[in-house]
Amino acid sequence: MMQKLKKTTVCLSILGLAAAVTLSGESLVRAHESSNQGTEAQEQDSEELHAGAFKKLTAAEALEDKDVKAAMNQVYDLFPETESYEMNAYENVVSEENYDKYVIRLKDDAESFFHFAVDAETGDVSYTIQSLEASEILSYPNAEKGLDEIHAAHPELKSYEMTSANVVDNFISDFSRYNITFSENDSNHSMTFGIDAKTGEVIHSSENKE
After folding, report:
1. Average pLDDT of the segment spanning 2-24
2. Rounded-to-integer distance, Cα 57 and Cα 44, Å
3. DSSP assignment of the chain, as one string?
4. In this predicted model, what pLDDT tens digit does every residue of 125-157 receive, in sequence order?
């Protein structure tokens, strides 16, 4: 597992845990669409995730599972800053087929986060979602290519601020993506885009006008 982690660190810079991880979405499907759904699920503050499939655990309860503990130790080794992050853990209590047994969310007061899941069958980390400083995304493979495509399709975004970014790695489906949000100054208008990390292709967009 450590060899996989080190390999991903080289490929995706600071996202060192990626090769150990895959993304689960609604119904815990292992496909490109799960990146969107998994990200949305991770951002919920409710007691349950995925429409009741998960129940919330204490950190101590989750760490009683050797797979969770092993995953946490690797995260802390590769990203020591996350040791100070608050840990929220969720256990899958519904799915009986291929699924992620645990979802772990690490977050600090500054809104930085690192999320991952543990695969029920293998015990490996199945996906990661890591927040980035928006400017960091430009140093990632093919991110600039995707940004050029976004600006060509939406030239007005050149005057917007790039306010947030994260990297999603789904390793069961061997898929990585960047999610980038642009916000208009002095308004609540924003647009979020997904970029395929392997090709630089823009794969989805959403708009918020609240």
Report:
1. 39
2. 15
3. -HHHHHHHHHHTTT-TTGGG-----GGG--STHHHHHHHHHHT--SS--TTTTEEEE-HHHHHTSHHHHHHHHHHHHH-GGGGGSEEEEEEE-S--SS-EEEEEEEE-TTS-EEEEEEETTT-SEEEEEEEE-GGGGGGSTTHHHHHHHHHHH-GGGGGSEEEEEEEEEETTTTEEEEEEEEE-TTSS-EEEEEEETTT--EEEEEEE--
4. 899 999 999 889 999 999 999 999 999 999 999
**C-beta contacts of 75-79 below 8 A and 24+ residues apart:** 75/17, 75/106, 75/114, 75/116, 78/5, 78/9, 78/16, 78/17, 79/14, 79/16, 79/17, 79/114
Residue 158 CB coordination number (10 Å): 9
Q: Which two tokens stand for residue 103?
A: 């979802």
- Cβ density class 181-198: b for 16+ within 10 Å, e for less: bbbbeeeeebbbbbbbbe
- What token pair was written down for 76? 């802390």
Give first-to-last CA distance, the chain, whole Å: 43
CA distances, 161 to each of 25, 129, 188 (Å): 29, 22, 12
Instruction: Give me the phi and psi of 162, to 5 degrees please.
Output: -80, 105
Query: Which pair of tokens denotes residue 52?
Result: 């009741």
| pTM exceeds 0.90, yes or no | no
- Picking from 122, 149, 134, the residue whose alpha carbon sits closest to that of residue 181 is 134
